[in-house]
From TrEMBL:
Record-given protein name: GTPase Der
Boundaries of every EngA-type G domain copy: 3-166, 174-346
Gene Ontology process terms (BP): ribosome biogenesis
GO molecular function, one term: GTP binding
Keyword check for Cell membrane: no
Pfam families xrefs: KH_dom-like, MMR_HSR1
Organism ancestry: Bacteria, Pseudomonadati, Aquificota, Aquificia, Aquificales
Keywords: GTP-binding, Nucleotide-binding, Repeat, Ribosome biogenesis
Function statement: GTPase that plays an essential role in the late steps of ribosome biogenesis.
Binding-site residues for GTP 1, renumbered to this chain: 9-16, 56-60, 118-121
Amino acid sequence: MKNQVLIVGRPNVGKSTLFNRIVGRRKSIVHGIPGVTRDIIESEASWKDKKFMVADTGGIFEGGEEMSEKVEKQVKKALSEAQVILFVVDGREGITAGDEYIARMLYPYREKVFLVVNKIDSEKLQKNVYDFYALGFEKVFPVSAQHGIGVAELLDALHSLLPDEPVKLEYSGIKVSFVGRPNVGKSSLINAILGSERVIVSEVAGTTRDAVEVPFEYKGKEFVLIDTAGIRRRPKVEYGVEFFAVGRSIKAIEMSDVVCLVLDISEGITNQDKKIAGLIERRFKGCVIVANKFDLVKATKEQAQDYIRKELHFLDFAPIVFTSAIRQEGIQDILDNAILVYQDYTKQHKTSFINRAVQKVLKEKAPPLHKGREVKVYYAHQEEAKPPTIAIITNYPDGWRESYRTFFVRRLREYLGIRYSPLKLIVRGRE
Ligand code: GDP
Ligand code: GDP
């Protein structure tokens, strides 16, 4: 997380009021931090010619001296990365022990700290400001966040410390999400993954526009968990009452490279499972089928596998893993398979290789005649990765019927060595 302007201060001094003043009516991003009561809220803002990110650190300091080591490490990282720190205090209350605690923490960064004495709503209160010099910061600004007094002066003063280029917030890595019916074990699996020793959850929290994004590392690879439904932090007691939020699942699927479709295999595959599977297929996403609660199943893996392949035949590219979140079994298999899927999902294929593969498929079985004429392929090439998208140029695009396309894609995947990813086929006429 690289926020150029970080707002800190104890509770109730007016941080979020100031944040809203600076940001205006823009869309904000919310992060959750484990062990911290209030979320971090982030948004883009601008002042004069510059755009920057502002974050309200919310409840980070709420714990006072009891801040856990882990949270403290994250706080220090955020403080050292920020361009500007706005340290907000309550001008009506005077200096408190909480302020002094935060001041000590900020002291190493004092060059970039602006002490914002808030709630100076009137001329009369100005005299309160002088007391706050005792905290040891040179740049002191009286403001009234509520009434918008002094905020412009504050922004003018920090303007020169901001970089010219706005920082764009996006994580790199394999974007994975967990979708499935309620109660199949999504949040149990996510907790098992993030709690696993092999997994390093790397940052303060996830950044996002539409979801909580949790970056983590596994076997030296970067991942980003996309959580649109808030299943990561959902209190355990609440399961069962969640309704199936299709919209949020679609969003998660769209934001992902690899979607983990979680099934409660002890219940078998329902129509709702098939619908969710269909959403993944239609968006050409990579997929790992996670057959969870396998501890409750008497059948063998082979039997279960045959059953899943039959019921979800249209996801034939998706590897199947068997897990028990409760027994912590198969958890690593999910990520290992997500890596395999991602490799195929992002592979670039040489044009010559693609054309040879296309010819092999045509030789195996040519498209049926179109109005009595032979259907030919002039040329083929890869247009995109994520997913691999192959365009073919033909004399009769209308001659490529659904059933033949299905055959063609299946065989083409085979010849190209794409085992674990869908392949998107685009059929075009000449010019
Ligand atoms: P936070 O906990 O630091 O984020 O504080 P809030 O922004 O939620 O503000 C705490 C309280 O202080 C709220 O009741 C605000 O309305 C009030 N407040 C914020 N800014 C001002 C201000 O400039 N003047 C006055 N009088 N009250 C303010
Ligand atoms: P979600 O709604 O998909 O996030 O499902 P939860 O993770 O909340 O799990 C729903 C219920 O299934 C909880 O009671 C879990 O303890 C239980 N559960 C989750 N995974 C397993 C599993 O692998 N085996 C068994 N027996 N129960 C599980």
